[in-house]
From TrEMBL:
HAMAP family: NDP_kinase (MF_00451). GO terms for biological process: CTP biosynthetic process; GTP biosynthetic process; UTP biosynthetic process. Its EC number is 2.7.4.6. Keywords: ATP-binding, Kinase, Nucleotide-binding, Transferase. Its cofactor is Mg(2+). Transmembrane segments: none annotated. It is an enzyme of class 2 (transferase). PANTHER family: NUCLEOSIDE DIPHOSPHATE KINASE. InterPro entries: NDK-like_dom (IPR034907), NDK-like_dom_sf (IPR036850), Nucleoside_diP_kinase (IPR001564), Nucleoside_diP_kinase_AS (IPR023005). It comes from Biomphalaria pfeifferi (Bloodfluke planorb). Belongs to the NDK family. It comes from the Eukaryota. This is Nucleoside diphosphate kinase.
Length: 154
């Protein structure tokens, strides 16, 4: 990473978000905030990858349904970089249950059901590291600087 005060998070537009044409909307919000995309791809994830991604939830009653939902179509997987992007990414996504999400958040603006909540965001810096390594190869991540960096950061 180019700047030690920057961090990275894994954000994915889930199959329902892709089907509903929200890839651009979600990218737009992170871009407009000043965050930098360092990787992005449309991928129809194999179940093994999704089971690994959600392995901490394996004992939940909704786990099988969750893996089915996430493998029902392609997702748009991304890595975003910037100051406190893990925490801010979660705030921009909203609460897990869209009905509990504030308007202005992605889930609060576009979702209703928890099992169709449009997007994923890493919940901690360590989780982000694991998820980025799971979904992307090192060479898929682009290290570059925004030319307008000094207009985003003081
Ligand atoms: P997140 O970090 O906000 O995505 O939430 P979790 O890590 O707790 O759960 C992962 C995903 O599982 C959520 O985004 C939902 O898609 C799904 N999920 C969580 N809780 C429930 C639930 O109670 N019912 C159903 N059907 N899905 C759930
Ligand atoms: Mg989670």
């Amino acid at each position: 990473m180019t700047d030690p005060k920057q961090e990275r998070t894994f954000i994915a537009v889930k199959p329902d978000g892709v089907q509903r044409g929200l890839i651009g909307e979600i990218i737009k919000r992170f871009e407009a905030r000043g965050y930098k995309m360092v990787a992005g791809k449309l991928i129809w994830a194999p179940k093994d990858l999704l089971k690994n991604h959600y392995k901490d939830l394996a004992d939940k009653p909704f786990y099988n349904g969750l893996v089915e939902y996430m493998s029902s179509g392609p997702v748009f997987a991304m890595v975003w970089e910037g100051k406190e992007v893990v925490k801010m990414g979660r705030q921009m996504l909203g609460a897990t249950n869209p009905l509990a999400s504030m308007p202005g958040t992605i889930r609060g603006d576009f979702g209703i059901d928890v099992g169709r909540n449009i997007c994923h965001g890493s919940d901690a810096v360590e989780t982000a590291r694991r998820e980025i390594a799971l979904w992307f190869k090192e060479e898929e991540l682009s290290d570059y600087e925004f030319a307008n960096k000094s207009w985003i950061y003081e």
